[in-house]
Protein: Phosphoribosylformylglycinamidine synthase subunit PurQ
Amino acid sequence: MKAAILVFPGSNCDRDLATAFRAAGCDVTMVWHKDTALPAGTDIVGVPGGFSFGDYLRCGAIAANAPVIGALRDHAARGGYVLGICNGFQVLTETGLLPGALLRNARLKYICRTVGLRVEGESLFTHAYGTGTEIALPIAHHDGNYYADADTLDRLEGEGRVAFRYTETPNGSQRDIAGILSENRRVLGMMPHPERACDPAQGNTDGARLFAHLAGALTAA
Ligand SMILES: NC(=O)CC[C@H](N)C(=O)O
Structure:
């Protein structure tokens, strides 16, 4: 299974994400933001966390216009898988590949701690856990307050596209949303960091299950 990880100036979770994919048995290629193509045979694109372009304008807004985004759009349009984590989720909403926006946290503070999450929507990403399961993952962001208009929120919920919900919202996100899926369920954006919960040395391995399941399912496909 082949994963490509986009790297922007200011990305800081790209190597952690590569380590998580590699530990699950994936081939990983890092792809610089100025590249205009993904490696042939890419199954999944990882859009990592961090502070792309210093979070200027809005988090993810400049990265969403980088040369590599055309290849990301083509990959998603072909039905390819995409996993955007934290700044990666912000990039995905800024590109329009996922609906809504990530606003400043309700209390205006950067939050760095482990939170409880309930797993919901059906997808290759969430099958690792099963609907209704509660897990814990770290968050680290100042713009994680998910916003969408009421119709979009109703649609996401009606179509089972809320992938993860906070058991108690840390950042003011509407309807406690921590992660959402695209219409075809192959693009996931989530604020929590599964790649930071992959090794017993990190004190939590809830994230490793997501990568292991993805790698197994995409290798078998
Ligand atoms: N860890 C991250 O990816 C942080 C994303 C973004 N820079 C924020 O603080 O909201």
Summary: The first helix runs from residue 14 to 23. The CA atoms of residues 61 and 94 lie 6 Å apart. Helices lie at 14-23, 69-77, 87-95, 150-158, 206-220. The radius of gyration is 16 Å.
